[in-house]
Amino acid sequence: MKNAIHKIAALFLALLVLGSTMSVSIDKHYCSDHLVDVAIFGKATPCAMELALTEKYGSEHNKTSDCCQDEHIVLEGQDELKINVENIDVDAIVFISIFKNSYTHLFEESEQHLVPFDGYPPPLIIQDFYTLYEHYLI
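and the corresponding structure tokens:
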């Protein structure tokens, strides 16, 4: 069980690093303020009107045309994954050490079930609470 949890945690961390370093590009094509096509990791296909105008007037017509617009969004991933250890302050080191110790002890199974109040006797019953408050089990 403990080994499986470690494998899942390692897989999660690997996916987290992969996702944070990956760049994504989104390409959108608008035709007269209406979204026609959205493409992720590629080029959005133009509308039929723009293709017809390109065939009729050539590629120079698209530069002067105001009806169709292309929008290109690039989400950059981070490039540097190395953390400079010299800039970490004492509070961060204390937090990391406490978190590591509490996390490693979280998944340990105890073989012995401890009862902390086992050595103490129960309190003495002075009055019968069922008859005192008139609560009877039916």
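(Above: one complete record from the training split.) The mean pLDDT is 80.
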